[in-house]
Amino acid sequence: MSLEQLEFFYAQAPNGLKSFGSALCMTSISLENYVSSLLVTMTMKISIEDHMSGWVPRNLNKDHLDKH
Fold it and tell me: How far is the C-alpha of 21 from the C-alpha of 41, rounded, in Å?
């Protein structure tokens, strides 16, 4: 998705605004990553129980849903 966004900005923007379009594209990617991280953190805080590791375990090699 981000490659297509960047190509769109370069194809449609005037010469003076190509760098602004690139910066806007990178800003949207960073905001998407921040929101994704926030959602995973909130899900982890909600799904952790007493001895269970939660929906997304800290160690993916040790914790499997089929072992619980």
Answer: 30
pTM attached to this predicted model: 0.60
| CA angle centred on 36, ends 34 and 38, rounded to 5° | 70
Q: Are 55 and 44 in contact (CB under 8 A)?
A: yes
Distance CA 12, CA 24 (A): 14
Burial of 27 (0-12, 13-18, 19+ CB in 10 A): exposed
Element counts in the chain: helices (H) and strands (E): 2, 0
Instruction: Please name the residues in contact with 10: beta carbons below 8 A apart, sequence gap of 6 or more.
Output: 18, 21, 22
pLDDT one-digit tens code per residue, 11-54? 888 888 888 888 888 888 899 999 999 998 888 888 776 666 66
Domain ranges of the chain: 2-67
